[in-house]
Amino acid sequence: MALFLYGLALVILLGGIILFYYSKKRHKKVEEPKYRMLIDED
Fold first, then answer.
1. Do 25 and 34 form a contact (C-beta atoms < 8 A)?
2. How many domains would you assign to the chain?
3. pLDDT: is 26 or 11 the higher one?
4. What integer pLDDT is reported at residue 42 of this predicted model?
5. For a tag on the chain, would you pick the N or C end, based on fewer CB atoms within 10 A?
């Protein structure tokens, strides 16, 4: 039973991290550096 609860806690934690990272509030902060890198400075 303890092993099941440990696995369930890890799955919930992983899901929370994924939801936090891909939330709408963070979208601009996450995507902006990628596009800034592609801009040609010359």
1. no
2. 1
3. 11
4. 61
5. C
DSSP H helices, the chain, are 2-21, 24-38
Which position has the token pair 């609860």? 5
How far is it, in rounded angstroms, from Cα 35 to Cα 9? Answer: 35
Mean pLDDT score, 20-25: 83
Residue 40 has which token pair? Answer: 């040609």
Query: What crossing angle do the helices spanning 24-38 and 2-21 adopt, rounded to 10°?
Result: 60
Q: Which residues, at least 6 apart from 25, have a Cβ–Cβ distance to it below 8 Å?
A: none
Identity (one letter) of the amino acid at 34? K
Domain boundaries, position 20: 2-38
Q: Percent of the chain having pLDDT more than 90?
A: 43
